[in-house]
Amino acid sequence: MRKKLMSIFLSFIFSILPFQAMSHGDKSPDIYIINANIYTADDHNPRAETVYISKGKISYVGPFSEDFKNHAEEIIDLKGATLLPGLTDAHVHLKGIGYREKMLNLQNIDSLAETIAKVKDYVKTTAPGKWVRGRGWIEKVWPEKRFPNRQDIDPFTADRPVVLGRADGHAVLVNSYALKLAGIDRNTPDPDGGAIRKDKHGEPTGILVDKAMGLVYKLLPANSPKSDKHALQLALERNVRLGWTQTQNAGGSYEDIKLLKELKDEGKLSHRLYYALSDGEPARQILAKGIEEDHDHMLKVGGIKLYADGALGSRGAALMEKYSDYDTKGLLLTSREKALPIMTEALKKGVQIEMHAIGDRANKLVLDWYEEAQKAVPEEERKVKNPRWRIEHAQIIQPEDQQRYKKLGIIPSMQPSHAIGDFHFAPSRLGKDRLANAYVWANMIKLGMMPPAGSDAPVEIGDPRIEFYAAVARKDLNGFSNEDWHAEQAVSREDALKMLTLWPAYAVFQEDVRGSIQVGKLADFTIFDKDLMSIPEDQIMSSEVIMTIVGGKVVYKK
After folding, report:
1. Dihedral in degrees, nearest 10, Cα atoms 242, 243, 246, 250
2. Does a structural domain hold residue 139?
3. At which of 217, 243, 276 does a domain end?
4. How many CB atoms are closer than 10 A to CB 320?
5. What is the pLDDT of residue 101?
6. What is the dihedral of CA 114, 120, 122, 124, to 10 degrees?
7. Residue 223: exposed, middle, or buried by beta-carbon count in 10 A (0-12, 13-18, 19+)?
8. Contact 436/483 with Cβ under 8 angstroms?
9. Does residue 431 carry a pLDDT above 50?
10. Within this chain, do residues 358 and 485 fall inside the same structural domain, yes or no?
11. Where are the beta strands (DSSP E) in 285-365?
12. What angle do CA 377, 381, 384 make, to 5 degrees?
């Protein structure tokens, strides 16, 4: 009887497949994936061993079927490899990833001395008078226990300007040549929302924080559209090699969207994108034009990215009390008066708001502003009843404000890798007491929220294995942690999987079409050679992506 019912079911499935093909205009082959160790992120059907793909969508999830094998145009035998719903990086800066590949990359260097040596070697390959640009330094594990300064690089850069971004993107190191070009000296005041760090003699150290970076950035030669397009393509190619099937871009321009559409027309848009526009003119344009989304869900333009404060490492995150290691409470990069009109208009137009907020003061203020905007625009005047507004990073949150996230329906968009890096310096920045309210992933989940996980690449490496490992282990990549790291905030592997799949889909209103392996959803999969859901923590980083599939198309194969 069971076999007869399965036969009837399969006959129905195959009878509707040609209709699906005509409906979507998709000529991709029907694929049957077999011998897979499948985790679906679907609580009603969490495990499976085969999946059938028809015209870019999932038509069957379940045990092996000879009938499906006979009907498929292509068979993929995974020989026991682990297939997950397509992984999503919920917070990236796509073009920045590409430019990291094109310029001096200072990530993963464990001392100031080695960092300066790498800069010195790179300078030898550049021409006098030309800008030297790099990014990625971070002092978290440096034995020197200090920021770099202009004196570190001046001896070998006297004839050219240098600008080297800290990994977080909220501070830069510049040399004396660049300071002179920008007209920055001991008498230059801090701009609003920025800081020019000075030494005990009142002289600039070469470190510029947040909006002070603009004093130098405005002097940099503009990148050409051709260079920008190449950077975007490099980032897309890198991302699918790492297993990402969608990234959510946190701020950008319509010029970049045009370039992405060109890449799509050329068949080079290798993974899906959700795109939030930057504050300023891009934000005004999306409020005028409204949300855009392709019929195939490859590119969605749906949000506005705002900034409330800076970063913890560069002491720009806005705190309620002063930093434990510096006489400052951080920086506010916007105000209620500026943000509120954007928010109320966004509510009326159905445009999502996502705001960067790291410090506890910034998180409280943003929640205040979100609440005020929502009260100002009743549900009947909104294009979308539940706007699913987000706070990006959400790193330090007082207990009462954790509750307010839930009450207001705000999505905490969090990056696990930030914690396992920041906790090397967070104790000195915050002191022990405030660490209990830092990177509270488990708290937010227990409150019933669905935090999407991202990497913030190029701030971090942008590797999904790191994000998964950080979420479940809450240790650095060498296995280090201590009581300051609050191991109780680690999450289960099941929740970590959803943080990288279903919950990012929900965060951009796409949970009905992607994020889990269910019939009718888009066939996006990330396939690893090891079982991330069961292997020991110390083996997660040794697993490898062997295939990335987007819409039934293999976009990467090892």
Report:
1. -30
2. yes
3. 217
4. 15
5. 87
6. -150
7. middle
8. no
9. yes
10. yes
11. 292-293, 299-307, 352-357
12. 95
* Mean pLDDT for the stretch of residues 72-90: 98
Beta strands in 326-464 (DSSP E): 352-357, 390-393, 411-413
Q: Tally helices (H) and strands (E) across the chain.
A: 20, 24
Give 93's DSSP letter. Answer: -
Q: How far apart are CA 122 and CA 327, in angstroms?
A: 35
Q: What tens digit of pLDDT does each residue of 234-243 get?
A: 999 999 999 9
Q: What is the dihedral of CA 509, 250, 333, 413, to 10 degrees?
A: 50
Contact 395, 317 (CB under 8 A): yes
CATH of the domain at 537: 2.30.40.10
**Contact (Cβ atoms closer than 8 angstroms) between residue 167 and residue 135:** yes
Q: Give me the residue label for tokens 């005028």.
A: 288
- Residues linked to residue 332 through DSSP beta bridges, in sequence order: 309
Instruction: State the residue range of the domain holding 184.
Output: 100-217
Query: Taken in order 409, 414, 416, 418, is the CA torsion positive or negative?
Result: negative
pLDDT at 309 over 60: yes
Alpha carbons 89 and 499: distance in angstroms, whole number:
9
Domain count, the chain: 3
Pairwise CA distance, residues 27 & 161, whole Å:
53
Select from 165, 162, 176, 251 the least CA-distant residue to 209: 165
Whether the pLDDT of residue 19 is over 80: the answer is no
pLDDT digits (tens, 9 = 90+) for 149-160: 999 999 999 999
Tokens 């790193």 belong to which residue? Answer: 395
Q: Is 287 among the domain residues?
A: no
Query: CA distances (Å), 418 to each of 76, 210, 327, 456, in order?
Result: 36, 18, 24, 8
Whether residue 66 is found in the same domain as residue 120 = no
3-class DSSP string for 94-153: HHHHHHHHHCEECCCCCCHHHHHHHHHHHHCCCCCCCCEEEEEECCCCCCCCCCCCHHHH
Q: Report the CATH number at residue 179.
A: 3.10.310.70
363, 472: one domain? yes
For residue 115, the one-letter residue type is T
Task: Report if residue 252 sits inside a domain.
Answer: no
pLDDT digits (tens, 9 = 90+) for 318-337: 999 999 999 999 999 999 99
Tell which of 201, 217, 233 closes a domain.
Answer: 217
Q: In this structure, are 76 and 105 located in the same domain?
A: no
Q: Is residue 241 part of a domain?
A: no
